[in-house]
Every structure is written in C-alpha cells, then in structure tokens.
Write a structure and sequence with these properties.
The complex is a heterodimer of chains A (445) and B (86).
Chain A: H1 10-21, E1 25-36, E2 43-49, E3 54-60, H2 61-67, E4 76-86, E5 91-101, H3 104-120, E6 138-143, H4 148-160, E7 165-170, H5 178-191, E8 195-202, H6 216-224, E9 229-233, H7 241-245, E10 248-250, H8 253-260, H9 264-297, H10 300-303, H11 307-392, H12 394-399, E11 404-406, E12 424-428, E13 433-437
Parallel strand pairs in A: 3-5, 6-7, 6-8, 8-9, 9-10
Antiparallel strand pairs in A: 1-2, 1-4, 2-3, 4-5, 11-12, 12-13
Chain B: H1 13-29, H2 34-56, E1 62-66, H3 74-79, H4 82-85
Chain lengths: 445, 86
C-alpha cells in the first residue's frame, strides 16, 4: 500500500519529478511573452504561449548568443529542449537548447539580414537617392493590374496631372513568380523612352504577402532602374527592402502617385502668376522706354519746332526791321545834310572874303608866334648840344676834379718814372695852372 | 482630339516653364532693349500658351505595357474622362 511506502523529502520528490521531466525532449512553437534579457543574468527568461497555455522557459546565455536570433515579445519562435524542474521554487520549466524564429519571425530575420547586406553595399545611402522630376512626361507604373493599388495610382495621377502619360506594367505582386514579374516590369518601364519616374506599388497585405518586395532581385532592379523609383507598398508600419533602396518611399500607392507628379492646379496657378508677371514686366519695360522717350521729347528743341531756329529767326526779323528803318532814315538824314550845306554856302558866300581876311590876319599872327617858338626851340637844342660837347671836352673831365701834369718838355707826364726829384712840372687844373717842383718820386710796382 | 500638345522645339514642360520664368525675370530687370523685350515677350506668350494647353489636356493617356487592366474600376480609370470632359 501506498501508506507502507516511506515518505520522500521534498528534495527527493522534486529530483524524482525532474528526472521524469527531463526525459521529455521536444520541439515547440509558440509566441514569446514576458521576455527578460538582462545583461547580468546567466540566462534569458521568457514564456512561450499559444491560445490557451503558457510555459516558462529559460535559455543559457551562451546558447542564446550562439543561435543568432533575437527574441522580443510577440515573436513566433520554434525552440528545441526539454522540460525540467527548478527545485528551489518547485517550478517546472522548459530549458531551451536551440531557438529559431518561426514563420514571419523567420522571414523578418531573413529580411533584416538582406537589409544589412544591401546597406553595407551603400544601396540605401541618401547620396544615391535621385530627386524626382518636377514635371514628368511619362510615368512608369509597376503594380498588379487588378486590385485597389493600380486604381488608386491611376485615379490620383488623372486628378493631379493628366498631362503625363502613364505606362503601366501590370505584374503579379505576390506568390510564386511575383519576384521575376516585378523585376521584368521595372526593367520594361525603365527602358521606355521619355519615362521620367517609376512608381512601384501594391496595396497592404500580410508580411508574407509583401515578401517579393523584400527580395534581393527586386531591390537590385530598383537600384538599376535608370530613372528614380518611388515606392508605395503596403501600409505605413511596413518597410520593405524595396522601400529602403527606392529613391523615395511613400507610405501608400496613392501617396506614391502624389509624390511622382505635381498637382496640376498648383502648376496652373504658377503659370497664371507667370502670365501676370509677363504682362506686367512687358508693360513696365514699355513704360520705362516711353518715359525715356518722353524725357527727350520734353526737351524744348522737340516741343516747339521754332525753338531751334526761333532765336535766329527773331534776330533776322530785327535786322530786317532795322534795315527797313535805317535806309530811309539815312537817305533823309543825308539829304538834310546836303540841304544844310547848300543853305550854308548860300549864306556864307557873301561873308566869305571877310572871313578870309580875318583868317589871314590870324595866320600872320600865328606865323610870327610860330617863328619865335621855332627860334626858342633851336636855341634850346644848341644849348643841349653844347652841353653834350662840354661833357666830351677834357676841360669837363678836369671840371670833375682831375688834373693834368706837364713835364719840362711840355709833354703830359703819364708815369712817375718820367720825372725826377727836383724837376719842375706844370699842372693844369680845371681853373688855372700850377708851377710845381717834384719832391719825391714813388713808383708803383 | 485631345492629342498631345507639342511644346515649342520639343521642350519638356519643365524646360518650357523654366524658360518662361527666365524671360519674366529678364523683362522685370528692365536691362534689355525694347525690341529684345518685345521678342522675348512673344516667346514667353508662346511658351505660356503651350504650357497651359498641355496642363489643360484633360485626358490622361494610359498605355498598358504588360498585362491587362482589370477590376471594377478598370473601365473608368483608363480611357474615359477625357472625352466626357471635352
């Protein structure tokens, strides 16, 4: 009987259970919750659950690091390991030996790995991103030919910018063969002449549905496209690899279409403003020239046709006037003079002899006076001449205080050597003469 | 009817608009001869008209390069509108 059996200690009981549990080695798929990953801990703790059950898990840090995956709450993972018991708490737990992301989790891991690789290649760098054209001529659209996305794109472009032609590649965007079709579509529209921008779009879907846009092939086709590519894939929180390498990422197909083309209304307003500015600028230009012409036209020379000649014309008039006046006046004046002269002659005639006598008498007097004057002036001239003569005479020189010495022979003594001491010499002064005896003779060296 | 508007010298819309804006700036500067100004104005008007006509083109041309457009909105998205609005 059971009662006859020896009772076990708690430790022994748990050791028994632990041994039994550890024989159960399984693979389990479940969703992660309550993950605790603290650097100081030796193990990672989390719970794995499904709709109705929960099992506590632990994974030694070494094993976790080795598996390369990173778990977060909500991630779907597949673990391999065994159940065990933690004696200190009397708790059962599952010890994870290995771990992989399952389902979408696995896909995300794969996508993250590709993203890392392409980023390392520089395909996501901003410098690689090309600006979108302001006014595309032709817009390439690569998307499914059915469903909401293509119609969103067409409707948006028709509303905003019907001036652009659309070149649509309707391709399969999910399931088998989608990747190849998307690549072919991008290549086909990229080759079309006149294409300025390509829209790559699809509507929202599950993560798995969007997988073709996470493929390396599509990413490389986007990068290789000769014109900028705008993506509008899925809905906001989803970012695909295609989004990351695209020149512009829009959140939805509609947003991608809006980014790819301007709004015709905006462009129309811009044209309208240019139209106004053009007209205004021309009228300003014309006004400016008109003003300049006006300034010139206002110069007197152009305002009054007579301005240039006016002054001279007036002068001419005045001369003509003066001339007209002067000619008769002069004639008049001169005939009056003539008349006066005639009258004077008539009047003077009889008195002429009387006047003549008077003039003769006067002339006589004048002649006498002039005779005196003539004599006087002649005397003055003679005196002047005499004075000049005087200046030149030796007497005049003596008059200035010089003296002339004559030797015994009567010759002029010019040097002291010509006389001897005791010789008698005569000295002529300006007034009178001296008889002198030479006392000393000094010779100038 | 709503055939493509041909831009002067085959300019793109963007090029035409850029040239138009440049003409306006040149005229506004007032630093050009009157004859030149008038010639540029005429050119500007031609560019403006071409741009406006291009923009007013109501029908959007859609070419299917690959596949056939399907779906409930397919008929209306491609080729109506233009005719109806003309």
């Amino acid at each position: 009987m059971a009662s006859a059996e020896r009772a076990l200690s708690v430790s022994d009981a748990l050791a028994l259970a632990k041994g039994a549990l550890e024989g159960v080695r399984v693979r389990v798929v479940g969703e992660v919750s309550e993950a605790t990953d603290k650097p100081g801990y030796k193990a990672l703790y989390f719970s794995l659950k499904d709709g109705s059950s929960v099992m506590p898990c632990l994974m030694w840090r070494d094993a976790y690091t080795a598996c390369g995956a990173k778990i977060t709450d909500g991630a779907l993972i597949e673990v391999a390991g065994f159940f065990t018991a933690y004696a200190a708490k009397g708790r059962m737990q599952f010890q994870v030996r290995s771990l992989v992301l399952a389902g979408e989790g696995a896909l995300r891991l794969q996508v993250a790995e590709l993203a890392r690789r392409l980023e390392a290649e520089g395909l996501m760098r901003d410098e690689r991103k090309r600006p979108l054209p302001s006014f595309p001529r032709r817009i390439g659209v690569v998307t499914s030919p059915r469903g909401k996305a293509v119609h969103d794109i067409l409707r948006t472009l028709k509303r905003r910018y019907p001036a652009a032609e659309l070149v649509v590649a309707g391709v399969q965007v999910e399931g088998e063969g989608a990747v190849a079709q998307i690549v072919r579509g991008i290549e086909a529209v990229g080759r079309e002449p006149g294409i300025d921008v390509v829209i790559l779009g699809r509507g929202g879907g599950s993560y798995e549905d969007l997988m073709p846009f996470n493929s390396e092939e599509v990413a490389r086709a986007v990068v290789a496209c000769p014109v900028p590519v705008v993506t509008g894939i899925g809905h906001e929180p989803d970012t695909s690899i295609a989004d990351m390498v695209a020149d512009l990422r829009a959140s939805t197909p509609t947003a991608a279409a809006e980014a790819a083309a301007p709004d015709a209304d905006d462009v129309g307003r811009r044209l309208e403003s240019q139209r106004r500015l053009l007209g205004r600028a021309l009228s300003h230009l014309v006004d400016a020239y008109e003003h300049r012409v006006c300034l010139v036209a206002q110069r007197p020379v152009f305002c009054d046709p007579m301005a240039l000649l006016g002054g001279r014309m007036q002068a001419l008039d005045q001369v003509a006037l003066a001339l007209g006046r002067a000619l008769p006046q002069r004639l008049e004046r001169e005939s009056a003079v003539l008349e006066n002269a005639a009258r004077a002659i008539e009047r003077v005639g009889p008195q002429f002899t009387v006047a003549h006598e008077v003039r003769l008498a006067r002339a006589g007097e004048w002649t006498v006076a002039a005779g005196h004057a003539l004599v006087e002036s002649a005397e003055r001239a003679i005196a002047n001449a005499a004075a000049r003569l005087d200046d030149l005479s030796p007497l005049a020189i003596l008059g200035r205080g010089y003296a002339v010495c004559y030797g015994a022979d009567g010759a002029v003594v010019r040097a002291s050597a010509e006389v001897v001491e005791g010789e008698r010499v005569r000295v002529r002064l300006a007034q009178g003469r001296l008889g002198c005896v030479v006392e000393t003779v000094e010779t100038e060296e | 009817m709503a055939s493509d508007v041909v831009m002067p010298e085959g300019l793109s819309f963007g090029e035409a608009l850029a040239e138009l804006e440049q003409i306006v700036r040149a005229l506004e500067s007032g630093q050009i001869e009157l004859e030149d100004g008038l010639a540029r104005y005429e050119r500007g008007v031609a560019l403006l008209r071409a741009c406006q006509e291009k923009l007013a083109q109501a029908k959007q041309r859609v070419t299917m390069l690959i596949g056939e457009l399907e779906g409930d909105e397919g008929a209306s998205a491609g080729d109506d509108g233009g005719e109806a609005e003309q």
